[in-house]
Amino acid sequence: MIGAAAAAVYPAARAYVAARRAPEVDVVRATQIVTAAGTPSALPVLVATGYVVARHSSDVGVKVGGRLATLKFEEGTKVRKGAVIAEIEHADIDAQLDAARRAVVEAEAQVAQMAAARDEDLRNLERQRALIKDGITTTQALTGAESAAAVSAARVKLAEAAIASAQARVRITEQALENTNVRAPFDGVVIRKRAEVGETVSPFGVAGQATREGGAIATIADLAELEVQTEVSENGVGRLTSAMPATVKLQAYQDQTYKGRLRQIFPSADRAKSIVEVRVSILNPDVHVKPEMTASVTFEEPASADTQAGGGGTRPGRSGDGAATQTILVPKRTISEQGGQPHVWVVSGGIVLRRPVTLGRDRIDQVEVQSGLAAGEAVVINPPSGLTDRALVRVKGS
Question: What is the residue range of 208's domain?
């Protein structure tokens, strides 16, 4: 009787002991993304970090050196294209301009005087010509009248040239006066004030004042066109395509996301760092987005764009007849490889099964599974060495 009881208990005890000795594994469920027909969807392919910059930004400087007389801006001031935002002291140029304008008036008076003398000499010449016909005057008197008329005409031309020269000096002085004005190059916002009233500035900068190199007194940016300046490794830049959609997050506002679009991949790489600089336009910036903020960019690729190369069909797991698009994703840490063939370990009923799979594209820390796995199946993550097909396993936390 005791032997019969022992025989009945032994299989259960043996199974219990085997289950306790089975390796413990972590599992994760295969995820399926379903997109309705005609609905755009995007899957992440790469993440990069960088800084928010204005696409149009300028360090606005002075054209001439001098002492700043007025500043019409502070940080945050909105400016319009062509508006005067600062002035250099210009009392000396004002005096030069006044003198140049008076020189024009003087030259015009001289022209009037010379023109009157010319007209008188021309009338005298006409009288001498009439008298020579009547034999009243001499040829010598006629010749003298002709010479006097010619000299008067030349003096008028000389005076007119003096007017033109004086007017040119006025224009030069007016331009010199205009050069003391600093104007905004485009509509924007002052994001950095780099000088104060009373400071001496120069187009080439002032020794010991590195913050104003090149004579810059302000930095103006067009905050309507903001973008993220980021860097992508050479290994990842091949995944990027022109106008690729992206999601932008600011480090300061993690709960807020912004739509982005890849605007530019720089034509050269940094061979020392093995990176390529890229720019991503922020399509819907708000007041929270500010230049120089740290931002992360998740580059995305529309799922509807995935078709088999060279053929008219679609890839496995995707619909080519306008129906819903389905994509299976698993973490990369679930993939093992043997003999060049990728596989996963699927857990079902406490048994682990080795399942060959066909992989698609990488999606950041996940990978697309084209075949061999169904949505919702439990797969082992970071599979331990020594797993064998159809072996007993214990799932952590169960």
Answer: 58-89+181-221
